[in-house]
Amino acid sequence: MIDERANQITRSHVGLVALLTVVVMFEGFDVSATSVVLPYLGREFGAAPPELGRALGVIALGSIAAWATVRLGDRFGRRPVMLLSATAFSLGSLATVLVTSVSGYVAVQFITRIFLVTQIATAYVIVSETLPAAARGRANGLLGAFGSFGAALPYLLLAPALATPLGWRTLFIVGAMPLLTLPLLWRWLRETPVWLTACADGARRLSALNEMRQLTAPALRRNALGMTLLWLIVNFASSVSALFFTLYVVQEREWAAGDLALIAPGGLVAAFLGYAGAGWLMDRIGRRWTITLYMAGLGGLTMLCYASHGWWIVAGAFLGMQAVIGVWVVAYTLNSELFPTHLRAAANGWCHNLLARWGVVVAPILLGALTARMGAIGPAATALGAVAWLAIPVVWMLLPETRGRRLETAA
After folding, report:
1. b/e string for 107-116 if b means 16 or more Cβ within 10 A?
2. Top CATH class, 10-196+207-401
3. Model confidence pLDDT, tens digit, residues 248-272
4. How far apart are CA 407 and CA 224, in angstroms?
5. Percent of the chain's residues with pLDDT above 90
6. pLDDT of residue 4 exceeding 50
7. In degrees to the nearest 10, what's the CA dihedral of 64, 411, 77, 236?
8. Is the per-residue pLDDT at 409 higher than 70?
9. Contact assessment for residue 326 and residue 294, using Cβ atoms and an 8 Å cutoff
């Protein structure tokens, strides 16, 4: 018989989500800042769009290297991995201020990206394993909403940052602010009860080879394949929509930093509502329908944004894209619900980081090369926008609905 108290939201649940929102918010900030500063980074170091595209691609390789660190959550626990990654990410953001070349920027951001990705993946696992099943979607949605809030902040802060002596580097000083919250994280963050129970029940600590064997065994093979394909499409499509946006509007639509600051408040609201709405929809209509709606919107809005010339249409499409990027929280939640506790972090590492993150690597390189071939970012991004729609058949043909699934019985 299920204990009804297991379905109740407690004060500790609220405190946990509140604590992790700060970490997630600055993860979104740093990823967004990496692309927001592109026009000014390129201008300072004399880099053209193809070179900047390659730079973003190399930085994205850090997401793949995070395979090694994300998996450690199954071996050593969620708490130590979160503390390590949050510390290293913050220091990496601060070190970005000191770079003097594109290659230096790439090197520092590559290492920073490893720990950035590790902390966001671990945060979603922690919330998924701690919150009741009936509220898991909304809790992860709220977490993602604050991450999206952070992602929109660089657009708002860019103009003031450019007016400082450090210029665009000022954004990465702001990105290092989680250093101030680390004492609170160390004091209040606890290990998840689901992971502790699995350890007490004798769950094995698997080698990488055994992880791969279990994920490709008949019981989990379909889930692993489906999540890998879904993540690959989400990574590629969201990168196409966002990474060159600032470069696109500054160079091809003659926007100034003030125009970006003008749409930033709307971006904050749209992103927050998009992620929170994804969480609400997950608990109402399920994971598959939510992904369908969001990926359909991402493809259409990307093509509208990059094919349009009017300021209001481009701005409106941008706000819409900020909202539907909330599909990330659905994918993270689904990934947590499809695999047993002793494989949960490893499944994220294999499906998302090692295999599917190549979408983030390939997208800017391909977009940069296609831009050089077609003569502009707009038509290149428009041509690649429809890739988002490929996620819809994947989620319906390969992945089950997991709404309401209890993670302690997911094995």
Report:
1. ebbbbbbbbb
2. mainly alpha
3. 998 899 898 788 878 888 887 898 8
4. 17
5. 45
6. no
7. 20
8. no
9. yes
Task: List the one residue out of 331, 348, 330 whose CA is nearest residue 339.
Answer: 348
Is residue 190 within 8 A of residue 71, CB to CB? The reply is no
The model's pLDDT over 75-97, given as tens digits with 9 standing for 90+, comes to 899 999 999 999 999 999 999 99
Distances (CA, A) of 387 to 64, 358, 406: 21, 15, 33
Domain boundaries, the chain: 10-196+207-401
Question: Does position 70 have pLDDT exceeding 50, yes or no?
Answer: yes
pLDDT exceeds 70 at position 1: no
Orientation of helix 257-285 relative to helix 327-337, angle to 10°: 40
Long-range contacts of 70-73 (CB under 8 A, 24+ apart): 70/117, 70/118, 70/121, 70/122, 70/345, 70/346, 70/348, 70/349, 70/352, 70/353, 71/208, 71/211, 71/345, 71/346, 71/349, 71/350, 72/345, 73/121, 73/122, 73/125, 73/195, 73/344, 73/345
End-to-end CA distance of the chain: 18
Q: Which of the listed ranges 72-76, 203-207, 261-265 does the model predict with the highest average pLDDT?
A: 72-76
pLDDT at 169 over 60: yes
Q: Which residue has the tokens 């990206």?
A: 113
**Residues 95 and 173 sit within 8 Å (Cβ to Cβ):** no
User: How many residues comprise the chain?
Assistant: 411
Residue 4 CB neighbours (<10 A): 7
